[in-house]
Each structure stands twice: as structure tokens, then as C-alpha cells.
Amino acid sequence: MSNTLVNLNCERILLLKSHTLNAVFCYYCHFPPHLTVSQSHTEKDALINRGYSDWKNISNLTKKHENTSSHKNAVIKYNSWLSTKKTGSVSSQINQQVKDQIINNRETLTSIIRCILYCSRQDIGIREHKKINSTEDNPNWPCHDVNEGNFLEMIKLLSLENENFKTNFKSLPKNSKYTSPDIQNDLIKAASNLTLRKIVKEVNLGSNIFSLIVDEARDESKIEQMSVCIRYVYDSKIKERFLGFIELNELNAEALCNGLILFLNNTGLDIGKCVSQSYDGASVMSGEFSSVQTKIRTLAKNPCPYIHCHAHRLNLVLVNVTQNVQEVGEIIGLLEAVFAFQSVSTLRLATPLFRSTSN
């Protein structure tokens, strides 16, 4: 059927003429893709269904047709269809809005993560012990009144310097600002996991063997921990990397060895690839029988020699030298006595861990 769009001086009706039938149809109601077959052919109106060929009365018919509800609905749907052709459907517009929101949220979260990583790499405390009212300490303080800690203050600085970040950060819901202490810890933990994965990948792609460096340490809260480092070769360079701390409940060789093996397994390192080990000179670590170094050598199934830590050896040399200088020995002894008096509490003396350490 040959069709032609014609304009018959009808202001609100677009007529489509069929040369085969020698009749006209309402374009809005009969043909467009915004109407289904059932919608366009259920009406009895001639301009919709069978066409109209009474040319003398076409003007009256079109005026009558344009006032029908079916024609008005068809025009509304046609205009909506044209709009969606330009801007997309409602669902696609919503999807695009969601995508834009996701991009903005990710950019904001990326900036927040960079603040966390900056504080971590520079060894800067993220949170404050207490909020400090700056106006009380310094009435001429030019900025805001409350010091909320390095991390939150850095977020405020970013908001001052970057208007886009400020807008996106303010648009975040109050319950998902990504700035709470729990989120800060989660981000640090995630960064730590990614760093460990990269270290393990370098070990596997590089020399595929590593040396183990372990030392006991006590944190500020007097909890005994074991620091774990490894040395390996990657890209023809010797690298030494810190892996983490192991909290200790017991200080015997069996407990230390089991904790170390469990930590390496969780990190993704095979103890069989350990080719040397370095500790201090304590008997529980370096003893010839039933010490940590003998147990690690047995599990590694290779010679895995033990090397006395050179830093500890240097410390022992300095201690022996100072013992021959009376004045220096007395000063160091006094400092050690003051430190021991201030660092040991009666509560810690009562714990089984301290009694085990003392024994």
C-alpha cells in the first residue's frame, strides 16, 4: 500500500493518504509504532479503521475525530514516543542517573581512600583522642571551631579546595559518608590485604623463595606480639617487606612456631619456599634443640640456616662495651630501672602471660 503524508489544513490532525485505497487515515491513531495493533484497530472511527474518502465532509469529520478520547490519547502517546526517542525511555534515564550516581560515589570514595592512605603512609594518627575546641585555645583561630582529627580535617580541606568533591560528598546519605571509625578501619584493612597480595605476587613471580625475619615486640598496651618480615628478590632487586604482627598468648617455641606457620598460610606464602631465617639470640628462638629455628627448618624441608640478627648482635656489642665504662653503665642502668618501674603495672604482673614471660 503506497502512503503519503498530506496536510489538509487540519491543525491538530496529521492525515496519511493511501493511494491504493484512495482514502485517508489519522496518522496518530493508525500507524505509528507507539500504538499496538489492538490499540489502533479497535475503534470504529473511519479515520482509524477503514479510511475516509468523503472529501467534501473531511473537515467536519476531522474536527469530530480530534475531540475523541482515543485521538487525544494517541497524540499524547505519540509525543511521549518522540520524547523517548530523543532522551531515551524512563527506565534508561533512570539507569543513566544511577550510573552517574555510581561514578560520582566512586570518585568521592577514591578521594576518601587517598586521605586514609596518606595518613597511614605518613604515620599520622587518623582519629583524635578527643575533639579540641580551637577557639578556646586560640580565639584568633581562623578556621572552624572543632578539631576532628587528621582524617576528617583533610576531608574538610578537600571540600574547600575542590567544589566537585564538596558537592558529591554532601550528596552522600548521612548513614554512608564513609568516614566513620569502622569504615576507616575497613579501608585500612582492605589496603593491607591488597598490599599483602602484591608482596606474595612479587615473591612468586620473582625469586620464588624468601628469607624469614621475625622478632618479638610489645605494643603500648603491653600485648606481646611477633613482627614478621621477609626478604626476597624481584626484578633483580633485593626487597625487604613487613607483613604484619602476630598476637601471642604463649611464648614457648611450639606456640611461636604454630602462630608463625598459620600467619604465613593465611598470607599465601608456602613455608617450603623459606630458605633462611633470622631471629634474636633468645634460646626459644635460636636454641639448637626444640627451638623455633629447628621447627621451621623441619617444616621447610631444606637446610634453611639460622642467622643471628645483626641489629641484635650490634646491640650486644654496645652493651658489652659500655659495661667497661663505669659512668656509662650506671646511666644506662638507671634509665632501664626508671623504664621498668614506669612500664610495669600490678595488673600486668597478675596476668598468666607475664608470669610465663618472667619464668
Report the average pLDDT across residues: 80
Largest sheet: 5 strands, mixed
* Count of strand segments: 10
The helix/strand order is EEEHHHHHEHEHHHEEEHEHHEHHHH
Class from secondary-structure proportions? alpha+beta
End-to-end CA span: 105 Å
What is the approximate shape? Answer: elongated
Strand content: 15-25%
Strand order of the largest sheet: 8-7-6-9-10
User: Segments where pLDDT lies below 50 for 5+ residues?
Assistant: 5-11, 36-43
Helical fraction equals: 40-55%
Instruction: Tell me the number of helical segments per DSSP (H or I, 4 or more residues long).
Output: 16
Radius of gyration: 39 Å
Brief characterization of the structure:
The protein is an alpha+beta fold. It has 16 helices and ten strands.
Descriptive account of the structure:
With 359 residues, the chain is of the alpha+beta class. The chain has 16 helices and 10 strands. The chain has helices at 27-30, 37-41, 58-66, 69-87, 90-121, 134-137, 150-161, 163-171, 181-205, 253-267, 283-286, 292-300, 310-323, 326-343, 346-349, 352-358, and strands spanning 3-6, 15-18, 23-26, 132-133, 146-147, 210-218, 224-234, 237-247, 274-279, 306-308. The protein has a 5-stranded mixed β-sheet. Strand 2 and strand 3 (23-26) form a beta hairpin. Helix 5 (90-121) crosses helix 7. The longest helix is centred in the first third of the chain and has 32 residues, at 90-121. The termini are far apart. 16% of the residues are buried.
